[in-house]
Design goal:
The protein is mostly helical and 755 residues long. The chain is 76% helix and 6% strand.
Length: 755
């Protein structure tokens, strides 16, 4: 343990010097990126640069991060680019989380979750569930957080990736907050397992930091220090500089809590130096905040106040309301300890305003407790009483006997104080009343004199008013008539405007219906053209097939006759005749496919389970797949609705798709089958990780006789398309060249849409 600590001190010393020399790199990179953005006119490049700028500002200025993310999102929507749109939306949500606008970020994440769910992007869907859970965790809404974390875990059971490390770290943090340390340690250990498995390179996370903190909470201080030093070595090994600064700061916190202030100060200065070299303002604020806490525990409140004030200034620049509120609470606590009570109260009230705005329940209750102490110290029982009432309401009506007694005691003190003030006021009122009685005699005479004067003046004013009133009455009548005319005119104008608006709405609706009808006619026209084209191809194929079949039969028969007659006399002739026979059979098979395509059988529809047919085809293909080391993976839920289909045609359809995937895969590949129900539709996905289809070929894959295989007829996928049409279904293809292909079959389950 001692050796590990010594090596770490030496290593950190040289790294810290190296970063101090290069402390302007971040600023120069930002200027270069902004310069490139201003000079480029390619929209995709501009989006990419905006995303880089947003990421750059993540720990520097959250408002700028939000602005760049919004610009990237608007440009992505303009270009209808799914990939960049999702990334920019994710950055917007993250910026809102960092600002402390947790409810807004949750709303944004849920919109993004819907997009990923519709596009079957399961890994990103799981990651967004984790992010939503993290936002609820920040609000201390543990039930909602746990619900989203478990949703993510369900998805990761079928599609695990490296982000499962992040999920288990947040799940461990939730259990830590609930003081369920056994579960927390278990989650952090699982995160550590996946961290090693995936060689997790996220610059914001290292599982050893979490393990170090949790073991400190359980009282195992030696183990805590060991894991934190492991975290430092791991970051050095991976050259993860940002996390190295974080681990140093975490170690400083543990040394602070164990009152080893000398080591705590050294580690916090290492952390501050690295953060400064990276221009990471968030990290700088965390390190300075830790420095302020060290001086607070050392009872050096003046220095602590200075560093807390500096932290607040940086955090205002970053724009993170969550940590701004935390800094204001720290300043309130320091000023209270210094005896500057009024100033302490002001800081707590500012913190309360921000915490209330972002919905931070835990901090709100904490601030109410602090304000209660301040008001009691100032003997302001009325405000203390009001604060306790608000505190009880914030705690979801959990009203304890202790709280009730405290409020009753405060109310009694407040009422006693009020009664004393009322008695004092009554005494003063009696004295004043006596003085008033003495003065009333003099005032009475004065009032009579004033009343007479006012009576004379009033009489004069009254006669003057009567004269003036007659003139005004005539003017008012004229004004009233004119106002009524204006009102009638305005009513007529409003009625005309309403008619225009209604007519405009009607015209817009008619225009919308016409566009819809035109679109439907265009689709029907395209389908008719395709059907006529396919019918023409079918007639030609049928004619050619009949013309070729007879000569091929003659060639095959002649070859078989020659083989029988001269089999013993010439081995070479026997081999040649065998080639003729096999070639004729192959041509005959191709002719059979053409005739089947030209004149397909009428389907015989029955309601049955598609899962049964798929399992049957899987059994047929399994031996062939095993011979070529191809893995077949199935995800077929138990309870799926039956649909109406022709079993023979559907078997042919699945065999064509399986053979298509088989031909595309080299030895050692994989075929995936997935069935799911949504919106009265049954979705079947058959995917492979084969050679894929070249982008230029994808639109033509369902055309008859189109093939890229050396031995194919080009009728397999065309047959699939025709069978799906006959079953009122749809078939879609998505392919990435040299990565793989996905065929999606959509069958209706609603009885009105079925055949």
């Amino acid at each position: 343990m001692v050796e590990i600590i010594k090596k770490t001190w030496i290593f950190l010393f040289f790294i810290s010097i190296n970063f101090f020399v290069n402390n302007l790199c971040g600023v120069n990179n930002l200027l270069v990126i902004e310069d490139i953005y201003n000079k480029t006119y390619n929209d995709f490049n501009r989006i990419n640069i905006l995303i880089q700028l947003a990421n750059y500002n993540r720990n520097r200025n959250i408002n700028n991060m939000n602005i760049y993310s919004m610009k990237a999102y608007k440009l992505s929507e303009k270009l209808s680019n799914y990939y960049f749109s999702c990334i920019s939306q994710k950055l917007i949500s993250q910026s809102l989380t960092l600002k402390g606008d947790f409810y807004e970020s949750i709303n944004n994440y849920e919109k993004l979750l819907k997009v990923y769910s519709e596009n079957q992007d399961f890994k990103n869907e799981a990651f967004i569930h984790t992010c939503i859970g993290n936002s609820y965790l920040a609000l201390f809404k543990f039930d909602k957080a746990l619900e989203n974390f478990f949703e993510a875990l369900k998805i990761y059971e079928n599609a695990t990736d490296e982000n499962i490390v992040y999920l288990y770290s947040k799940l461990g943090m939730l259990y830590k907050f609930q003081k369920n340390y056994d579960e927390a340690i278990n989650c952090f250990n699982i995160a550590h397992f996946y961290y090693i498995k995936y060689d997790y390179t996220n610059k914001y996370y290292n599982p050893y930091d979490d393990l170090g903190y949790i073991y400190y909470d359980t009282g195992e201080k030696e183990l805590s220090l060991l894991y934190l030093y492991k975290a430092i070595f791991e970051n050095i090994r991976k050259k993860n500089i940002k996390n190295l600064a974080k681990s140093c700061n975490n170690l400083s916190v543990i040394y602070t809590l164990t009152e080893d202030f000398e080591k705590a100060l050294i580690m916090v200065y290492y952390s501050l130096n690295i953060y400064n070299s990276l221009n990471d303002y968030y990290g700088i604020s965390q390190a300075i905040n830790n420095l302020a806490y060290i001086y607070e525990l050392k009872s050096s409140y003046k220095k602590s106040f200075y560093y807390n004030k500096l932290t607040l200034k940086i955090r205002y620049f970053i724009g993170n309301n969550n940590i701004i509120s935390s800094s204001l609470m720290n300043l309130g606590r320091i000023q209270y300890k210094r005896g500057i009570i009024e100033n302490s109260k002001q800081y707590y009230l500012k913190a309360l305003d921000i915490a209330d705005k972002i919905g931070q329940f835990r901090w709100i209750t904490n601030i109410y407790d602090k304000l209660d102490k301040i008001y009691l110290k100032n003997q302001d029982y009325k405000e203390a009483y009001n604060i306790n009432k608000k505190l009880i309401s914030k705690k979801d009506s959990i009203f304890s006997l202790e709280s009730a007694n405290k409020i009753a005691e405060l109310q009694i003190k407040y009422e006693t104080e009020q009664n004393e003030k009322e008695i004092e006021l009554l005494n003063r009122n009696l004295e004043i009343k006596q003085l008033q009685i003495d003065k009333e005699k003099y005032i009475h005479m004065l009032l009579i004199s004033i009343a007479l004067i006012f009576l004379i003046i009033g009489t004069i004013i009254y006669f003057h008013y009567q004269q003036k009133h007659k003139t005004n009455k005539a003017l008012k009548n004229q004004i009233k008539i004119r106002e009524q005319a204006e009102i009638d005119l305005m009513d007529s104008q409003a009625e005309l405007e309403n008619r225009i608006i209604e007519r405009t709405k009607e015209l817009r609706q008619v225009n919308k219906d016409l566009r819809k009808e035109i679109k439907q006619k265009e689709q029907i026209s395209k389908q008719l053209i395709r059907n006529e084209r396919l019918a023409g191809i079918g007639e030609i194929s049928s004619g050619i097939a009949h013309e070729i079949r007879n000569p091929i039969a003659i060639i095959k028969t002649t070859a078989q006759y020659l083989d029988l007659k001269y089999k013993e006399s010439s081995d070479e002739l026997s081999e040649l005749t065998d080639i003729f026979v096999k070639s004729a059979e192959k041509i005959n098979d191709t002719i059979g496919c053409m005739l089947e395509f030209a004149k397909p059988k009428n389907p015989e529809f029955k309601k049955d389970s598609l899962a049964r047919v798929i399992n049957k085809i899987c059994k047929i293909m399994r031996r062939k797949l095993l011979d070529h080391r191809i893995v077949l993976k199935q995800n077929i839920p138990d309870q799926l609705p039956d649909v109406v289909f022709d079993e023979s045609q559907i078997e042919s359809l699945f065999l064509n798709l399986f053979m298509n995937s088989f031909d595309a895969i080299l030895d050692g590949g994989c075929i995936f089958i997935n069935l799911a129900k949504a919106n009265n539709k049954l979705y079947i996905r058959i995917a492979d990780n084969g050679t894929g289809i070249k982008p230029g070929y994808v639109p033509n894959v369902f055309d008859p006789f189109f093939t890229t295989k050396k031995t194919g007829t080009g009728l397999g996928l065309s047959s699939v398309f025709e069978i799906m049409q006959a079953h009122s279904g749809k078939v879609k293809v998505f392919s990435r060249y040299k990565i793989g292909t996905i065929f999606t079959l959509i069958f209706p389950t609603n009885k009105w849409e079925q055949v």
